[in-house]
Every structure is written in structure tokens, then in C-alpha cells.
Amino acid sequence: MEDYKLKEILRLADGYIPQMSRFLRDMIAIPSESCGEAAVIQRIKQEMEAVGFDKIQIDPMGNILGFIGQGKHIIAMDAHIDTVGIGNKDLWQVDPFEGFEDDEIIVGRGASDQEGGMAAMVYAGKIIKDLGLEDDYTLIVTGTVQEEDCDGLCWQYIIKEDNIKPEFVVITEPTSCNIYRGHRGRMEIRVTTDGVSCHGSAPERGNNAIFKMAPILSELEKLATELGNDEFLGKGTLTVSEIFFSSPSRCAVADKCIISIDRRLTAGETWEGALQEIMALPSVAAAKAEVAMYSYDRPSYTELVYPTECYFPTWVVPKEHEACKTLVACYQSLFEEEPFVDKWTFSTNGVSIMGRYGIPCIGFGPGHEDQAHAPNEKTWKKELAKCAAMYALIPKLYVKEYTNK
What we know:
The chain is an alpha+beta fold. The protein folds into two domains: 270 residues, Zn peptidases (Aminopeptidase, 3-Layer(aba) Sandwich); 111 residues, Alpha-Beta Plaits. The protein has eleven helices and 22 strands.
């Protein structure tokens, strides 16, 4: 692309920092935990209208989709716009919704994870319009719901029910403006032991479900050290994240114990294998414990229920893929340096887009992974501008360099 166009993209991206900052702070000010995103979706719609998107729709699940162009090459850019809760408010130095900003940073819940990505995408759309960067592509900017509750569910719906199947998707989760091409998968597993309750004064009359769980916990801790490893994605991991019980009273033997396991799957590991590893533990067999995957069926804010099992597949895009090469070329063209290409530690909507359906994903987003779910969450204004510039250039360069049109 002509050098003057690249300079104009960068100039406009820097120039729109005040507008992106205002928009991001408006989103932060609207509490939008999973299944409660209605108000922030409307605020995004308002901004998309103001900057001139060609078409905007909100699907029955509640995802917002903004369209630019009408070309044959469909490219999507995604930000989930739900957030986690604020946790212990005493750990925040500022109100998590009122937030804070100075010349460099914006603080508030969702700043990095991941409403900053939405702000940068919307203003990338404005840059495309300002500079006439449309080509034989249709860019779809998606603001997706329920990701924090069930990552990828929104894209299961978009692909299967909205019938949208892009050539590739840019995930705008925080990457510190590095290029990410994959991450481990995950699954949510439940282990249940059953017992028989009785009065706590005579525990020998019953069968304590919590005691039956104890050796299972010890063997799970050992199993966690023996999981698979991959040179790029790293180790599979396992942690017990929750424990529940059922008992008639504090003065009784527990008749049921349930634990939840967060299992991260590296390359080569499968959900079937992860379940079988646990089922094969001697303590599980001795306790006749039930091992199963959780499922998810919580209604979206539109009251739509779209059930799925809590399995989120591993995915990796090769460095040689056109999607990865497009982002690397854009970065080199705009910033005249080599990008750092890596992976996420956490999970994204890519678990469905690429993991389930094989649609390539590539990550580039403002903010840092270590800000996700943390008190005093922040993002950096210079990264909003850097991302807006990248998002504006990606579709044009892809069509020009990596398609036959």
C-alpha cells in the first residue's frame, strides 16, 4: 500500500484516541456481566451508527454485528463485550465503573478484557470510511455476549444460526499488541461422590461422601504433574476450582460431595482422554465416583437458551497461514518493525471459531493478559490507536496480497 495511506491511517488512529477513550469509558460505566449486556450493546450500536457503519444488526442471542462493505471476502473482527464481576471492591483504587484516565491509561472493569478491543474496532471502521479503504471485502465487527460465562457459545450461534462463515477472524482479546495464533483448550469437569447421611454423633452409621472425595483430590494433584506438553502451547493443566457438599446439617455425615475441575488441554489432548484419565484413578474406582463434563444452558439477556457442553477445543493457526501472514505484513508496513508472534495463556472465542469449525483465527488486541479479571484493570491509549490502525489495514491488505479477488 502507498506510504502516504499508511501514514494517514496512523495519523487518524492517533487522532481518534480521545473518541476511543470516551467510548471505552462509556462502555466501562455500564455494568455488563455475562447475560446482562443489553445496555452496553445499545451503546455500541449508537457508536457504530455515529461513525458510519453500513449495516448494524443485533441477532436473537443479543450479539451485535456491524458491517462495512459488500465485497465477496468476508472478514470478521470479534470482541466479547461482557465482563466478569468486580470482585472485592476494597481492592480497587477507583470505582470500577466510574473508572479513571490520564494521558496514558484508562482504568475500569472491561478496559483490557475486553471492551478496549471494541473501541478500537469501531474506530477502525471510521478510518476505513475516512480513507476509502473499502475493497472486495465485507468486514463484520462483532460484539459478542456470554463469553465470560461460556467462551465460544456466541460464535456457535453466529456460525450455525446467523449462517456467517468468515474466511478468517481477528480476535481482539488483549495481546499487548503482539500477534497470537492459538491457545490451549479447556473443559469443565464434575466429579461426584455419594454417601449416606446419619447423625454426626455416630458417623459409623453412615458413609461420608467428603471422606470418599479426599483420596481423589490427592490423586488429582499427582495427575496434574503428569499431563501432556507441547513445544508451542505448553503443558496441559488441571486444578480443582470448586467443592460442594450436601448434608442434612452441620451435625450430620455428608451424603454427597462434588468438585469442579478446570482442565486445560494442550495439543494432542482430547476431552475423551481427559475424562478417561480421571475415571482411571484408583480412588475414583474405589469411591464409585461419577465423572462427567458440565453443560451450559443459561439464558442470554434476550432470554434465548442455546445449550452446549463445557468443552472448548484447543486451536493453533500455522505461521504460514494467510491470516497470520496478513497480520505480520500489516504490522511490518505500519510500524516498520517485526511483530512478536505468540499465544494466549487463557481461552477465547477462538475455541469455537477455529476449534470447532476450523475457521482460522488470529489475535491482536489492546491491553495485557495480566489485567484480565484483576482489580484496577487498565489499558493503554497508545495500544488502542495501534490496534485501530491495524484493524483498518487488515482487510485491504488481505484482499490485495492474499486472495485472487
